[in-house]
Write a structure and sequence with these properties.
Number of helices: 1
Strand content: 25-35%
Strand order of the largest sheet: 4-3-6-9-8
Distance between the termini: 85 Å
Helix content: 10-25%
Largest sheet: 5 strands, antiparallel
Radius of gyration: 26 Å
Order of helices and strands: HEEEEEEEEEEE
């Protein structure tokens, strides 16, 4: 046969054949399990981080207070806007009766290159939105939901960092994440 091996005469060891089938079956089961777990994993990664209250506070000259050391309060204001009007949002308060076509503008007095603003619906699911971020001496962040908000629904906006739970400014100062609550007009 001149050194050639005929494929017809080559026998595969039954143990090797069984191992190959088991490996292939395990691979297919693993891929199927990964496909069913992937949406849950993505939801877990997108969930907002818990916001930690500051332990100690120091009174400032303007009558407000901020943490004594560590992250400071976020120096920003968030406004919910519609085609006709705008409403400033405050942490710890719920803005009721918001129009369904609202969009959100966050303005900060410092450059915050890793700031992330996200809108969450009920069950803490992220709401798809378009973003425009302008960073210079100050920061301006526009968040426009891709679809109109649902009537009679509750939402929360979370400002945090992209790299960690704390947004940081260009100088490296950490700030506490912020959360605002809104509710849309009913039917």
């Amino acid at each position: 046969m001149d050194g050639r091996v005929s494929r017809r005469n080559r026998r595969i060891d039954p143990k090797k054949k069984r191992r190959r089938r088991l490996l292939l079956a395990g691979l297919l089961v693993g891929l199927a399990a990964g496909a069913t777990l992937a949406p849950r994993l993505l939801d877990a990664l997108a969930a907002p981080p818990p916001i930690e209250p500051p332990l100690e506070e120091v009174a400032l000259e303007d009558g407000t207070s901020e943490p004594a050391s560590g992250p400071r309060l976020l120096p920003a204001r968030l406004v919910a806007r519609t085609a006709i009007e705008g409403f400033e949002l405050r942490e710890g308060e719920i803005l009721d009766d918001l129009a369904l076509d609202a969009f959100f503008v966050l303005e900060a007095e410092v450059p915050l290159p890793d700031l992330r603003l996200r809108l969450f619906g009920e069950a803490e699911r992220p709401v798809p939105a378009d973003e425009v971020i302008e960073i210079g001496a100050k920061t301006r962040y526009l968040l426009q939901p891709k679809d109109a908000l649902r009537p009679g629904a509750s939402y929360s906006l979370v400002a945090d960092g992209q790299e960690s739970a704390h947004p940081t400014d260009a100088a490296g100062q950490k700030y506490l994440p912020a959360r605002w609550a809104i509710a849309t007009r009913g039917n």
